[in-house]
């Protein structure tokens, strides 16, 4: 049985190979009309640039008002600024109207731009009435909003309202209330990039660029097949027959795939358990090679039953190769992954991928989510090769593709109730999530997870209202040692996302928690609370109290804060004593009742205060390390080394301290020793390893 993250890595590797065979990227592109409602969620195969002169392609008025020339206003402003109060009261700011341009009018050529001798009062500059969105005629370079004006239509003149004159003169500058050409989108800028998922906003941008067809990545075709003599098409209303059940998997999976937006689902119907291998494989071969199906998902007929023959159909009948046949998980153990390769006449290989999933609907749905979804994302997105293009060999390409493949976004969530752990296998437990405010910081949120109830693989209701799959470890003595995942414990959740263009964090396989479970060989990264005991070794009892608080704060913060760490006890050991006395006191402090409830005990040796240049109690440090070494079993020397390096990165003198990490108290607690120099960095670097260690401690 392969662990699920390993199965996923295999699926991604084989999927990447199929891309390699097919030219090294999402090879095929499809031309789609930008009026198609199906465009959103698809992936653009090319950069789309706005053609010159950009958008808008004319100078457009932002207001209903009057287009004017700011050069005309300069002289008016000079005169006005030099007037006394009375002259200003008599001043009239008037323009001659040259015409009107409404939004949508395209011919503005007839509008004159000459300033007029309008009346015996003197020279009036020209203005043009414009509505919002109308072309501002050439030569005019600002708009005065209609609110600031009165129109004296008889004389064909426009006049600024008296008490607005000062502000109009002060604020009307070149381009006031005008969107100049290209101001929203500069000419030649990219509004949709190659590889970008098309969102509703792109529909507007493509329209503004005048693009009517674009190239998108090919959507792989996925055939869905149900197997079993007991199945009735779900449209059949006569479901009372003994022994018959409606086919729930096809409607479930066909629609589940539709929500992904990364493929074209295709219904392959129901097949009988009694059909011959030959007949079934011939039928499926047609689908694969003639109808252009790229991926098959079959459900049922892959377990140990006498009529479970799907493996034979795919392997013997169709020449497939099995990559794994059992997964170490609940639900979905029998999941089998197969590739079928065929050499074309020109020597190229065409590859089809087959997921033979167990028949129970919950298993089928969860395994589709876990394995098929990332596979289809990779097939549809292709591999951006620019980073590896110079060293493009098959292995590099595949590693790059797998590491960068998009996988489920993840978060840690805290259980709202106890959940019984399965003693045989890790479980991908369906949970609903609720956002909760963290008690200490109102601006931060954490997540609570509630089980969707009985997780039996036939119980489709366990999928209802599920927001994700919580990765619970195998329980019992052969698993994590616990029988129950307790209320308040946090576990990683793989998030369902209902649509491909919903906000996704872009989690890549190589950096996912799911994948890290594989690396560390720890089945699940739990974040069980650390119960921290602190032993401070100091020779300065009287003045140490302030420093003790500082040590506590630094440790609590660096190990994850109050949400993750609970202070169980803090004791002080006097170092002004003989080696034997120090050894005895340390033994009592670490192994005695004071630390009964601690699963992590940190011994911190304080340097002498006020002696910045010579603060390390070198001899004491050595004595403490020596004593602790006798007490611990299973020394974690690599971790101690990391801790020392981290501490030294904050404070070089910390490198002189002999750090140690190991298990104490009959392997029920982790013991760490360090000096107070570089303590923050030391805590931070061991934090995640501590979570693992604590999860594996003897209960
Ligand atoms: P199988 O994997 O074929 O042994 O099927 C396991 C269980 O899932 C059996 O109880 C089947 O009746 C049930 N099952 C198989 N296929 C479907 C389906 N398409 N819809 C609903 N239940 C199914
Ligand atoms: Mg069956």
Strand content: 25-35%
Q: What name does the CATH topology of the largest domain carry?
A: Molybdenum Cofactor Biosythetic Enzyme, Chain A
Shape: flat
Helix content: 25-40%
Largest sheet: 6 strands, mixed
| Order of strands across the main sheet | 9-4-8-5-11-10
Number of helices: 16
Q: What is the name of the CATH class of the largest domain?
A: Alpha Beta
Write the layout of secondary structure elements.
Layout: H1 4-21, E1 29-33, E2 48-49, E3 60-61, E4 65-68, H2 70-81, H3 85-90, E5 94-101, E6 116-119, E7 122-124, E8 126-130, E9 142-145, E10 149-152, E11 157-160, H4 165-171, E12 178-179, E13 190-192, H5 200-209, E14 213-217, E15 221-227, E16 231-232, E17 245-246, H6 249-260, E18 264-271, H7 277-290, E19 295-299, H8 310-317, E20 321-324, E21 336-343, E22 349-357, H9 361-381, H10 394-404, E23 410-415, E24 419-420, E25 427-437, E26 445-451, E27 468-472, E28 484-485, E29 490-495, H11 513-520, E30 530-538, H12 544-558, E31 565-574, H13 579-591, E32 600-605, H14 618-631, H15 637-650, E33 660-664, E34 669-675, H16 679-696
Parallel strand pairs: 5-8, 15-18, 15-19, 16-17, 19-22, 23-26, 30-31, 30-32, 32-34
Antiparallel strand pairs: 1-14, 2-13, 3-12, 4-8, 4-9, 5-11, 6-7, 10-11, 20-21, 21-22, 23-29, 24-28, 25-26, 25-27, 27-29, 33-34
Helix pairs in contact: 1-9, 1-10, 6-9, 7-8, 12-16, 13-14, 15-16
């Amino acid at each position: 049985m392969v662990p699920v993250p390993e199965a996923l890595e295999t699926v991604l590797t084989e999927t990447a190979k199929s891309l390699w065979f097919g030219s090294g990227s999402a090879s095929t592109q499809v031309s789609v009309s930008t009026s198609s409602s199906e465009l959103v969620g698809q992936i653009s195969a090319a950069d789309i640039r706005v053609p010159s002169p950009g958008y808008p392609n004319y100078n457009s008025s932002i207001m209903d008002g009057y287009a004017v020339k700011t050069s005309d206003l300069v002289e008016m402003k000079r005169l006005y600024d030099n007037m006394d109060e009375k002259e200003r009261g008599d001043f009239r700011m008037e323009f001659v109207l040259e015409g009107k341009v409404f939004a949508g009018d395209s011919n503005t050529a007839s509008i004159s731009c000459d300033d007029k001798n309008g009346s015996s009062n003197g020279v009036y500059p020209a203005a043009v009435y414009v509505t919002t969105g109308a072309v501002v005629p050439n030569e005019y370079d600002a708009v005065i909003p209609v609110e600031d004006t009165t129109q004296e239509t008889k004389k064909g003149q426009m006049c600024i309202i008296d008490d607005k004159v000062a502000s109009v003169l002060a604020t009307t500058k070149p381009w006031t209330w005008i969107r100049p050409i290209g101001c929203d989108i500069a000419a030649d800028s990219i509004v949709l990039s190659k590889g970008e998922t098309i969102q509703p906003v792109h529909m507007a941008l493509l329209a503004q660029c005048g693009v009517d067809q674009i190239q998108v990545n090919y959507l792989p075709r996925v055939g869905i097949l149900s197997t079993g003599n007991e199945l009735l098409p779900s449209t059949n209303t006569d479901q009372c027959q003994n022994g018959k059940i409606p086919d729930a998997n096809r409607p479930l999976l066909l629609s589940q795939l539709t929500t992904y937006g990364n493929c074209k689902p295709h219904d392959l119907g129901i097949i009988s358990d009694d059909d011959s291998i030959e007949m079934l494989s011939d039928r499926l071969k047609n689908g694969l090679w003639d109808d252009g199906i790229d991926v098959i998902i079959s459900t049922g007929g892959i377990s140990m039953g006498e009529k479970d023959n799907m493996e034979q159909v795919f392997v013997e009948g169709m020449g497939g190769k099995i990559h794994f046949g059992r997964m170490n998980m609940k639900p979905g153990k029998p999941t089998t992954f197969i590739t079928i390769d065929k050499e074309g006449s020109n020597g190229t290989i065409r590859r089809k991928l087959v997921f033979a999933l167990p028949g129970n609907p919950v298993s089928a749905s969860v395994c589709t989510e876990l394995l098929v979804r990332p596979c289809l994302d990779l097939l549809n997105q292709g591999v951006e090769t620019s980073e590896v293009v110079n060293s493009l060999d098959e292995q590099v390409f595949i590693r790059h593709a797998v590491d960068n493949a998009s996988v489920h976004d993840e978060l840690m969530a805290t259980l709202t109730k106890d959940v019984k752990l399965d003693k045989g296998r890790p479980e991908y437990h369906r949970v609903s999530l609720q956002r909760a405010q963290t008690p200490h910081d109102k601006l931060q949120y954490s997540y609570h997870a509630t089980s969707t109830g009985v997780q039996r693989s036939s119980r489709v209701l366990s999928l209802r209202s599920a927001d994700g799959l919580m990765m619970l470890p195998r329980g019992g003595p052969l698993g994590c040692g616990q029988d129950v995942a307790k209320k308040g414990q946090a576990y990683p959740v793989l998030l369902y996302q209902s649509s491909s263009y919903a906000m996704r964090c872009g989690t890549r396989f190589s950096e996912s928690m799911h994948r890290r479970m594989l690396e560390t060989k720890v089945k699940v990264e739990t974040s069980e609370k650390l119960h921290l005991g602190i032993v401070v070794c100091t020779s300065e009892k009287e003045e140490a109290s302030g420093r003790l608080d500082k040590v506590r704060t630094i440790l609590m913060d660096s190990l994850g804060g109050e949400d993750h760490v609970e202070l169980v006890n803090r004791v002080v050991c006097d170092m002004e004593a003989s080696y034997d006395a120090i050894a005895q006191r340390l033994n009592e402090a670490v192994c005695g009742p004071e630390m009964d409830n601690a699963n992590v005990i940190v011994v911190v040796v304080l340097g002498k205060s006020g002696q910045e240049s010579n603060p390390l109690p070198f001899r004491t440090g050595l004595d403490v390390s020596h004593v602790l070494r006798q007490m611990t079993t299973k020394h974690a020397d690599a971790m101690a080394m990391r801790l020392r390096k981290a501490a030294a990165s904050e404070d070089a003198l910390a490198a002189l301290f002999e750090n140690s990490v190991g298990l104490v108290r009959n392997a029920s607690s982790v013991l760490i020793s360090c000096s107070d120099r570089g303590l923050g960095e030391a805590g931070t670097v061991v934090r995640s390893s501590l979570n693992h260690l604590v999860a594996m401690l003897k209960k």
